[in-house]
Amino acid sequence: ELVPVKWSMSCYDALKAKGVKVEMHTIEGANHLQAAMNATALKKAGDFLLQELTTAREVTPAEKTAPKSGN
């Protein structure tokens, strides 16, 4: 098995324990490559990334006080 489900669950649990927003979906009977090529899995991963990467992020104090480029 290329990536054991136990390893993936361990990573998921560790990230979640640190407050990181994570999702995990398993596909019964699929190995790592089959799961990575599954249309439903790809859609869920893409949707998750799109949502998380396009959500407005909090501006850090350093960014608030940094001079604007071009000034």
User: Using DSSP, what is the number of strands?
Assistant: 0
Show unreliable segments.
none
Kindly name the structural category: mainly alpha
| Overall pLDDT confidence | 83
Helical content stands at 40-55%
Fraction of residues in β-strands: under 5%
Radius of gyration: 18 Å
Number of helical stretches of at least 4 residues: 4
Termini separation comes to: 56 Å
What is the overall shape?
Answer: elongated
| Strand/helix succession | HHHH
Largest sheet: none
How does this model look, in words?
It is a single chain. The protein is mainly α. It contains four helices and no strands. Helix content is 55%, strand content 0%. The chain is elongated. The N and C termini lie far apart (56 Å). The model has no long low-confidence stretch (mean pLDDT 83).
Break the fold down into its secondary structure elements and pairings.
Elements lengths: L4 H13 L14 H5 L2 H16 L6 H5 L6
Core attributes:
single chain; elongated; 71 residues; mainly alpha; 55% helix
Quick take:
This protein has 71 residues and is an all-alpha fold.
